[in-house]
Amino acid sequence: MPIAVAIIEDHREFRDYLSALISGTADLRCTGSFRSMEEALSRISSNLPDVALVDIGLPGMNGVEGIRILKERYPNLLLLVQTVYEDDERIFDALCAGASGYLLKKTPPVRLIEGLKEAVAGGAPMSPEVARKVIKLFRHIRPPDHVDYHLTAHEIRLLKLFVEGHNYKTAATELHVTPSTINFHLQNIYQKLQVHSKTEAVAKALRNGLI
Fold first, then answer.
1. What pTM was estimated for this model as a whole?
2. What is the pLDDT of residues 42-54, one digit of tens each?
3. Which site in 5, 24, 147, 156 is 20 to 30 Å from 117, CA atoms measured?
């Protein structure tokens, strides 16, 4: 089945470009194109996509707040930021809100398509500039003392693999298990860390010095 993609973008020309790119790709389909987060929140459920491309600088409700609401309503919906902003605060806020990746608008079309597929496969696509900032951010965050979420050694190993860039399939190969087993362990991790996505789990584990 083609990957269903929705677009949340206020600039008409860029929104039309994204729609044409997605519709013109054989294994993708565009299920909705929204000018604002308010419009997306009111209409996206009628044809819920697998992944949504979300701008941050939207009129009215911004993308970060919208991501938080969408993730609460639809925990399985993947949210991939695509924006011109690459400052530390917006990157960190978007990832903590539940974004599965963070791409800049200057991302080449081929890489954007790859990013959508990577997100659906369990990855966390990021522009190189953003990835460097994320690493720098976490290096400067001091973990709190005496935090214990009772993660097993296997669960910690899985989180480390995701930090190293593995997705569901490659992590399964590395651990000699099936992707469904990886998903089972992830659900346990989500429950222990009280998060809703792989990106949130990795971020919280890094912040608390668990990996």
1. 0.66
2. 999 999 999 999 9
3. 156
